[in-house]
Amino acid sequence: MYSTLESCIIDLERHGHLVRIREEVDPELEMAAIHLRVFEAGGPALLFENVKGSRYRAVSNLFGTLERSRFMFRQTWEATQNVIALRNDPMKALKQPFQNVRAATAATKALPLKLGNAAAGFEEAAITDLPLIKHWPMDGGAFVTLPQVYTEDPDKPGIMNANLGMYRVQLTGNDYATNQEIGLHYQIHRGIGIHQHKADRKGEPLKVSIFVGGPPAHTLSAVMPLPEGLSELTFAGLLSGRRFRYGYADGYCISSDADFVITGEIHPGETKPEGPFGDHLGYYSLIHAFPMMRVRKVYAKRNAIWPFTVVGRPPQEDTAFGALIHELTGDAVKQEVPGAKEVHAVDAAGVHPLLFAVGSERYTPYAAVKQPAELLTIANRILGTGQLSLAKYLFIAAEEKQPLSTHREAEFFQYVLERIDLKRDLHFQTNTTIDTLDYSGTGLNQGSKVIFAACGDKKRELCADVPEQLKELRDFGNPRLALPGVVALEGPAFVGYAEAERQLRELTNAIGARGAMPECPLIVLCDDSSFVSASLANFLWTTFTRSNPSHDMYGVNAGYAFKHWGCDNVVIDARTKPHHAPPLVPEPSVEKRIDRLFAAGGSLNGIL
């Protein structure tokens, strides 16, 4: 397998998976725009050989398709899956000892290898020497989008207790002193936060090393949700088929195989404004105070290559990351959440806002009337597990006789809507944590959650047309069928929650007065119903990224019974609200400028 990023690039090019871009390209918006256009077309990886303002090359779209990712890891893929499976189910080794000899052999490459002079082969550089890539027009500066951020546990230093995570890094802009300070943005439920908390309690700075590049396995390791006890550094060795090589310089860990290393410290209480940044929900994350890192040194290999990606409204390259992770980890969620058969973070809705799950329902098999019971236990366990706990909406269904897959998203969504009792099976959690990047809540990291649970026989046939009750409503119009049983309805522009309460009371009363409508369990109030109903992706993205369950869910004939809320038909207010972050919109002049690369004679001519 690959010992360097360049060896991977040469292999990809030899097999037709990579194209070189000879022309000078501006890292200010142009490189990102080129990447987005090529990714959308399912195109190859891109090697930028002439980055304006930097002597270093850059590469993107390495993980742009699942097929290309499988190709890169073709020699170690199966062995890595086997080792992870053993971590999930150690009894497999006893049940199938000969089959698992290969996994044991692969595991011998997992232990990191300490070198005496880890900085050998590097030259010193400055932040301003790097490819300073700005991705979206309103971004606050240049960002690192594929970093491997390394920290050690202050109470138990050493590589075996280290954390390697992918947390975005702002290199320029805002109030950062050029070449001396950079911003480190990490969300809640991240390993680095535990390390910083411990360092702060000791009154000590936290040493940080940021690795960029190196074998692609190292990059993937930084985003892997690994079983307890399997570190990112050992996983990097497994997947690359080569032990992770490291050492120390001035007390900072150096990855010997990385293309770039930035070292520095986070001091207790030191923050600076970070952002905005065009993020993976399809909106900008705005300016907030995040840890500021004092730069110690910047190292670069002499022919270093800077890997990057561009995030935005899904699907993007990180979608392929997610698919790759799912293939590798397999049934890990079953070990983590007993009773869960499948959990699917819905990419089209920005991953964290929406989860689909299938679980067991075994508590009362003798009961004549089936209702969610064990499902609720499983749902609470899901919403209390790691990054799954950042979800806002969880749709969970009982495993019945027929196969049920959360990855057939439209089918699964309809399955739940056919079976849910909306007066009984909606369960809220209010004033709790949500994703840092989600601005639909009441503040940074603050919002609510709701569980839609369904089991038993079908209760309703879902409408295939807009019901009469939703036509010609005062102040609400253009009803469109988004999915069977789901209607998108346009309303007045959102101005505030007091006015929304009044508007929704009038709307739900008007619908209720027209008679029962069980065939349409969900109504989505939006700004543009034609957009919402145009595709499943549009429906999922708009509905679940622009609503906060506690504040934006209403109901026809809604009411409380012993503090439990229910209704006949759910209405989700997914209109854009003043506190929401703006959506990502490309800059037309940049789109026009990059046309030259795709025209006759350009490096990318014909690849679309």
Quick synopsis:
This protein is of the alpha+beta class and 608 residues long. Helices cover 27% and strands 26% of the residues.
Largest sheet: 9 strands, antiparallel
Give the number of helices: 19
Which class of secondary structure composition applies to the elements? alpha+beta
Mean pLDDT: 92
What is the C-alpha radius of gyration, as a whole number of Å? 25 Å
Given the C-alpha coordinates, what overall shape results?
globular
Strands, count: 30
Percent strand equals 25-35%
Q: Uncertain segments of ≥5 residues (pLDDT<50)? A: none
Counting copies of identical and different chains, the oligomeric state is single chain
Proportion in helices: 25-40%
Terminal Cα separation, in Å?
Answer: 30 Å
Relevant terms:
alpha+beta, single chain, 608 residues, nine-stranded antiparallel β-sheet, 27% helix, five-stranded mixed β-sheet
Give structural notes.
The chain is α+β, with helices and mostly antiparallel strands. Helices cover 27% and strands 26% of the residues. The protein has 19 helices and 30 strands. The strands form seven sheets. Strands 5, 6, 7, 8, 9, 10, 11, 14 and 17 form a nine-stranded antiparallel beta sheet that branches. Helix 12 links the parallel strand 20 and strand 21. Helix 4 (77-88) packs across helix 6 (101-107). The model has no long low-confidence stretch (mean pLDDT 92).
